[in-house]
Amino acid sequence: xxxxxxxxxxxxxxxxxxxxxxxxxxxxxxxxxxxxxxxxxxxxxxxxxxxxxxxxxxxxxxxxxxxxxxxxxxxxxxxxxxxxxxxxxxxxxxxxxxxxxxxxxxxxxxxxxxxxxxxxxxxxxxxxxxxxxxxxxxxxxxxxxxxxxxxxxxxxxxxxxxxxxxxxxxxxxxxxxxxxxxxxxxxxxxxxxxxxxxxxxxxxxxxxxxxxxxxxxxxxxxxxxxxxxxxxxxxxxxxxxxxxxxxxxxxxxxxxxxxxxxxxxxxxxxxxxxxxxxxxxxxxxxxxxxxxxxxxxxxxxxxxxxxxxxxxxxxxxxxxxxxxxxxxxxxxxxxxxxxxxxxxxxxxxxxxxxxxxxxxxx
Length: 362
Hints:
The chain has helices at 3-19, 33-36, 42-47, 66-76, 116-131, 143-151, 157-165, 170-180, 188-200, 202-208, 218-233, 239-250, 255-265, 273-288, 331-337, 352-356, and strands at 23-24, 30-32, 50-53, 57-61, 81-90, 102-111, 137-142, 252-254, 297-299, 313-319, 322-329, 345-350. With 362 residues, the chain is α+β, with helices and mostly antiparallel strands. The protein has a seven-stranded mixed sheet with strand order 1-5-6-12-11-10-7, with helices on both faces. The protein has a three-stranded antiparallel sheet with strand order 2-4-3. Helix 5 crosses helix 14 (273-288) and helix 13 (255-265) runs antiparallel to helix 14. It is globular. It starts with a helix and ends in a 6-residue tail after the last helix.
């Protein structure tokens, strides 16, 4: 489809969000990289176009709208608030991938602390209504379920934090979980290092290893050794709790069946029931919006390789394997950018160029 036709479609999507009560907003094409890059996932950080400005320092071409819109709202936005935007974003692509480096993004963001479940349902139902004529495959999930489950593990706070940081990297997450649960032994190199430290003392081992060739300084190396010693002396995560995590990650099917499955396991992990309660409240809110939760797809692992600022409900619409739309809840992001304030928030985006190529669209 021609660029003009794609822009026309983007305008139609914007009109639908405006009709839902959103206020149109803009964001500068150049964004401050130093602050915002750390808020994106590893994938986007590696694909952002970054440059240096002699006055403003390190800048990047806008890789999405959500983060700058959150920054704008947390600075002076009223509550509740609904925003929409329509403009280009820029991301580097792999050579030969055939993907556009610049494309339009149209989105809708809702900031409302009154009823998070109702807000989730409002956003998803709106996207569902707009995209339903195109016959897209839907997916939903909840990043908060896994984060809550990790918090309920019988292990140290440091281990829990490391696991939560790796939620977005499933392979690394699995490696850590296997290590912390005692399914695999410590790496031979780590074991050898700890044996040397125990026999000779950390200062002696560090002196013998001079000169330092890596990026870590002495204090960082000492802290890392201390964390490895702590890991070596920490009891494994109980097998029954690891089993609950594995069952959670395997949940895949209609949302209402997923809820029943999770209800059956919630009492086996400390503090997990409230996360399941939130899922049930969301499904009830979705049903009240006319969404068929008996058939709505749900995957507990969906979204775990997506944007790292999502921390609750996540959703996507696909043409085969091609992503057309995505969204989710990002409450923690508002706290990071709110300088002491926070507000529950949820939103989503649509790629009009991808939508224009869907055969079932009108």
